[in-house]
Design a protein that fits this description.
The chain has 651 residues and is α+β, with helices and mostly antiparallel strands. The strands form four sheets. Strands 4, 8, 9, 10, 11, 12 and 13 form a seven-stranded mixed beta sheet that branches. Strands 14, 15, 16, 17, 18, 19 and 20 form a seven-stranded mixed beta sheet that branches. It is elongated and about 125 Å long. The relative contact order is 0.05.
Length: 651
C-alpha cells in the first residue's frame, strides 16, 4: 500500500452516512469491511481486525462498536505509524457484542491470550525465574520447582528472583513437612511397599495407606500457608497437633511435631522480605522506556511483603501509559489467584472502573501521599530496575555493558543508572582555535551518530571555565528545544573548576535530572558536585576504564576538529593578503584546487577557468604568491630547412 492509500482512508469520514459503503470501497477500503461499518451497533463489544488469510491482527474493546471502528479511518488516528501499518493489512472485520463494558474488557483479554495478535501490546512472562508449585489439584499433592506457569489448577509461589531463597524455602518444607517426593499418579499408580523416604522419616507413605488422605491434605494446607507467609497459622496448627498426639499417648509423633515447632519458631520466614503497615494489598509499579514497559506487582499479606512478580510489555509504541497499564492488569492480574482486597496503582487510567467491576471484591486505589504512596513509589523503583535489566539484556552481546554501568552507579551513588553518558572536552592550540567536543556513550559503547563538535564563539581568548559553560549551555539548550533524549550522566574532562562551570550552566537551564561528574587526568580523580573530596576507583575497575575511554574519545574528537580548524585558517591566511581576492573567490579557489599549494601548482589557464577570474587576474594571483607565470608559451616560427630557430643566434 502507498501514501495515496492512507489519504483515501483518511478522507472516508468526510462522506455522508448514506453513501458510506460505496464511497469507502471507492477509496480503497476492503468491501467486506466497508459494508459492515454502517450496520455496527452503538453498544459495547469487541472487534477483531484480520488480514486476507483470516489471521487476527488486532483485538480491541469499545463502549460503542460503530463509533470506535469508524474512528480508525480518521485522520488523527492514521497519523500513528502503527495504525497505518495495521490498516494496510486489514481485509476483514469481526465484531462481538457483549452486555457491558466490563464484559468487553474481559473478552478482549481472553481473545488476546488466545490469538496473540501482532499489533496488540505484548506481555512477556519472565520464564527465567523459578516457582514453587504445589499440585493441589491432585488427590495427594506434591511440592516441586518449575519454571513454567500453567493453568492446571496448581498453586504457584514466586517467582523467586533469588534462587537461594527458593532453595531455603524448599529445604524448610522438606524438613518440617513430610511431603512425598515420588512421581506416582496416586492413588491410581501405587507401589507395593514404601520407598526409602518413609524409613528415614521424610514421608509417611500415603502411597501404601500408612497416612490417610485427609491427614495428608491437612499437611499440604500448612505447606501452602507457610509458602504464602502465614507462618503463625502453621505454628498454631502444629502445636494443636502436637498436643493432640501427646493426649493420644503417641509420644513419638508428638516429639517430631515438637522439633518441627521449635524450628518454625526460630527460623525467619523465607519469603518475607519487608514488613509494612496495613493488611493485605497488592501494589503496582510502572516504568516506561519508549516502546517497552515493565509492570510490577508486590504482594503484601498480613502487613508483610511476600513476593514480587512482574511482566515486561513490548510493542507499546503510540500507546498512552494508562492504556498500557490497563491492558496489562486486564490480561494478567485479573486472572491471578488470591488477589488482595486493595490494589494500589501509581496513576489513574481509563478502564479502571471496568476493570474494578470485573475484579469483584478488589478495589483499585490511586494513593497520593502517606504510607500507601510510599509503597507505590517502592514498586515503581522495582519496575525501573527490572526494565533497566531488560533493556541491557535485550542488546546484542557485543553492545552489552551491564557490569561497568552498574558499578559506576554503585560506586558514585548516582541516582540513575548511567546507561547513556555524554563527555565534554575543550581543545586549543596555545590559546587559539578554541573548540570543544561532546561524545555519547550508550551502555559503555560509543554512539558516533550522537557526536557533536563546537566552535567557541561567545568570547575570544583561552578560558577553559567559560568555554565549558558555553558548550554545556549550547548543547543542552538545543537538545531540550528539539525534545531529544537527555543523557543519564554528563562527564566533564577536568577538575573542580570545569565541573563548577558545567553545574552552573545546567542550573541556569533548570536541568537537575541528570548526573554530573568530572574526571581529572593527573590522578584519575572523579569529582562530584557538593563533595570536596574526590572519588578514586581502582585502576583495574571496569567503571573507571569506561570513563577513561569516554574521556580519551572526547579528547581525540576535539583535537581532530581543532587541527582541521587551524589548518583551514593557515590555508586561507595567504589568500587573505592578496588584493582583489575576496571571500567568494577564496572559496572558489580552495574548492577547485584544495589548498594554497594547489593554487601555486596551477597554470594561468586553469586559474582563469575558475569563476571570477580571467587571464590577467590569474597572472596577478600567481605573481602575488611568488610563482612565475605558467602560461603556455606561444608558438615560435621554425625554419624548416634548419634545425635552429629563426630568432636564435648561431654559434
Amino acid at each position: 500500500m502507498s501514501a495515496d492509500h492512507d489519504q483515501r482512508l483518511s478522507d472516508a469520514l468526510l462522506v455522508p452516512e448514506d453513501d458510506w459503503t460505496s464511497a469507502a470501497i471507492a477509496r480503497g477500503m476492503p468491501a467486506s469491511v466497508a459494508q459492515k461499518l454502517p450496520h455496527l451497533p452503538e453498544s459495547p463489544g469487541v472487534y477483531l481486525w484480520k488480514d486476507g488469510e483470516g489471521t487476527v491482527l488486532y483485538v480491541g474493546k469499545a463502549k460503542r462498536l460503530r463509533s470506535r471502528v469508524k474512528s480508525y479511518w480518521a485522520q488523527d488516528h492514521l497519523s500513528s505509524p502503527k495504525t497505518r501499518g495495521l490498516m494496510r493489512k486489514v481485509r476483514e472485520l469481526d465484531t462481538i457484542v457483549v452486555p457491558s463494558e466490563s464484559h468487553a474488557l474481559i473478552l478482549e483479554a481472553t481473545l488476546i491470550k488466545e490469538y496473540h495478535p501482532r499489533f496488540n501490546i505484548a506481555l512477556r512472562d519472565d520464564k527465567s525465574y523459578p516457582y514453587i508449585k504445589v499440585t493441589v489439584q491432585e488427590p495427594l499433592p506434591r511440592v516441586i520447582v518449575t519454571r513454567r506457569l500453567q493453568d492446571d489448577g496448581a498453586r504457584y509461589f514466586g517467582p523467586y528472583t533469588d534462587v537461594g531463597g527458593m532453595r531455603r524455602a524448599m529445604n524448610v518444607v522438606k524438613r518440617i513437612f513430610t511431603v512425598r517426593s515420588c512421581h506416582y499418579n496416586l492413588p491410581k499408580e501405587a507401589p507395593e511397599r514404601p520407598c526409602l523416604d518413609y524409613f528415614i522419616k521424610r514421608c509417611q507413605a500415603p502411597c501404601v495407606g500408612y497416612q490417610t488422605t485427609d491427614d495428608y491434605r491437612a499437611m499440604i494446607d500448612e505447606v501452602v500457608w507457610f509458602l504464602d507467609g502465614r507462618t503463625s497459622d502453621v505454628v498454631r496448627h502444629v502445636r494443636e497437633r502436637m498436643l493432640d498426639a501427646s493426649e493420644r499417648l503417641d509420644f513419638e509423633r508428638a516429639g517430631e511435631l515438637r522439633d518441627a515447632l521449635r524450628h518454625l519458631e526460630k527460623m525467619e520466614e523465607p519469603t518475607v522480605v519487608l514488613e509494612v503497615e496495613g493488611g493485605d494489598r497488592d501494589v503496582v509499579g510502572y516504568a516506561r522506556d519508549g516502546a517497552d514497559a515493565c509492570v510490577v506487582i508486590m504482594r503484601i499479606r498480613g502487613g508483610k511483603l511476600l513476593a514480587r512478580d512482574h511482566r515486561l510489555v513490548e510493542h507499546a509504541e503510540d500507546e498512552e501509559d494508562g492504556a498500557v497499564l490497563g491492558a496489562c492488569l486486564a490480561q494478567w492480574y485479573r486472572t491471578a489467584e488470591a488477589r488482595a482486597g486493595d490494589l494500589l496503582v501509581p496513576f489513574d487510567f481509563d478502564d479502571r472502573e471496568s476493570l474494578e467491576a470485573s475484579l469483584e471484591s478488589t478495589k483499585i486505589r490511586v494513593p497520593q501521599r502517606g504510607p500507601r504512596r510510599a509503597l507505590v513509589d517502592l514498586a515503581d523503583k522495582n519496575a525501573q530496575h527490572l526494565l533497566e535489566e531488560f533493556k541491557l539484556a535485550a542488546l546484542e552481546a557485543d553492545e552489552r555493558a551491564a557490569d561497568p554501568v552498574y558499578e559506576l552507579q554503585r560506586e558514585l551513588g548516582l541516582p540513575r543508572l548511567p546507561r547513556s553518558l555524554i563527555c565534554f572536552d575543550i581543545s586549543h592550540a596555545q590559546g587559539t582555535d578554541v573548540v570543544a567536543s561532546a561524545v555519547w556513550f550508550e551502555n559503555g559503547r560509543p554512539k558516533r551518530a550522537e557526536y557533536r563538535k563546537f566552535k567557541i564563539a561567545i568570547f575570544e581568548g583561552n578560558d577553559d571555565f567559560k568555554s565549558m559553560h558555553e558548550v554545556v549551555t549550547r548543547y543542552f539548550t538545543r537538545r531540550v528545544a528539539e525534545q531529544l533524549t537527555l543523557p543519564d550522566l554528563a562527564v566533564i574532562d577536568g577538575g573542580k573548576g570545569q565541573l563548577g562551570a558545567a553545574r552552573a550552566a545546567l542550573d541556569a537551564l533548570g536541568i537537575t535530572s541528570i548526573g554530573l561528574i568530572s574526571l581529572a587526568k593527573r590522578d584519575e580523580e572523579i569529582f562530584l558536585p557538593g563533595r570536596s573530596d574526590p572519588v578514586r576507583l581502582p585502576r583495574r575497575s571496569p567503571a573507571l576504564r569506561m570513563l577513561q575511554q569516554a574521556r580519551d574519545e572526547a579528547h581525540r574528537f576535539a583535537v581532530t576538529f581543532q587541527r582541521q580548524k587551524r589548518a583551514a585558517r593557515t590555508i586561507t591566511s595567504e589568500l587573505l593578503k592578496i588584493p582583489g581576492v575576496g571571500p567568494s573567490k577564496r572559496r572558489a579557489l580552495l574548492t577547485t584546487f584544495g589548498s594554497v599549494q594547489g593554487v601555486r601548482e596551477a597554470t594561468v589557464e586553469q586559474i582563469a577557468a575558475v569563476s571570477g577570474f580571467g587571464p590577467a587576474s590569474a597572472e596577478r594571483l600567481l605573481t602575488a604568491l611568488g610563482v612565475p607565470s605558467r602560461a603556455t608559451p606561444p608558438d615560435i616560427p621554425i625554419d624548416l630547412t634548419s634545425d635552429v630557430p629563426l630568432d636564435s643566434t648561431p654559434e
